[in-house]
Design goal:
Elements lengths: L1 H46 L14 E13 L2 E2 L2 E2 L2 E10 L4 E6 L13 E7 L7 E4 L4 H34 L1 H15 L1
Antiparallel strand pairs: 1-4, 1-6, 2-3, 4-5, 6-7
Helix pairs in contact: 1-2, 2-3
Length: 190
């Protein structure tokens, strides 16, 4: 650890205080760009899954049918990730006879699906059908993969945020002062 500190302090001093700080701020900027890119990539991968997202058997997916009304295209960069995606207004007829008007994204349905009933699934998390999700039939293994992908997204973004914080602190105070403070703090706790 001490060797890494010496190397980083030496690199900072070779650049000088101004360019050493600029390098740290550039590193923070690159990490922020990494956060944005990773969020877009993870969102794109998650958008490929057309199902309801139900991983466990309770609440159970129930059969439904959907009629596509109107669609709008989003992209090339959106909450669905990279690329062009369809968000479509649909009327869902559920297994218990209800009709629900909702909008589904991620190109679960497209304008090509207009004029025919589309096989759907419904998952409601609360009693009284107040919090429901809709999608096409899909194997549960894909829902599990999307859930794991979500955990990876959170871990990646968290690590990048922590790295950005370190780079910003080192940019503000300078690398030698950062390590001097860190080493003093470490001696007090032992």
């Amino acid at each position: 650890m001490a060797q890494i500190q010496r190397e980083q302090i030496a690199a900072y001093e070779r650049r000088g205080p101004f360019w050493g700080r600029v390098t740290q701020f550039a590193t923070a900027g690159a990490l922020i760009a990494g956060i944005v890119v990773s969020l877009l990539v993870f969102s794109t991968l998650a958008s490929l899954y057309p199902g309801t997202g139900a991983v466990k058997s309770t609440p159970a997916e129930q059969p439904a049918e959907a009629d596509v009304r109107e669609c709008r295209r989003v992209g090339p960069v959106s909450g669905d990730g990279l690329g062009y995606w369809w968000h479509c207004a649909v009327t869902v007829r559920t297994w218990d006879g209800r009709e629900v008007d909702t909008v589904v994204g991620h190109s679960v349905v497209t304008p090509k699906d207009r004029g025919r009933s589309v096989e759907f699934r419904e998952v409601c998390d609360e009693e009284g059908n107040s919090d429901c999700r809709y999608g096409r039939p899909a194997p549960r293994i894909w829902a599990l993969a999307v859930a794991i992908l979500g955990l990876l997204r959170v871990a990646t973004v968290l690590l990048l945020i922590i790295g950005t914080g370190f780079a910003l602190v080192r940019g503000v105070v300078g690398v030698p002062a950062y390590y001097a403070w860190n080493n003093r703090r470490g001696k007090r706790t032992t």
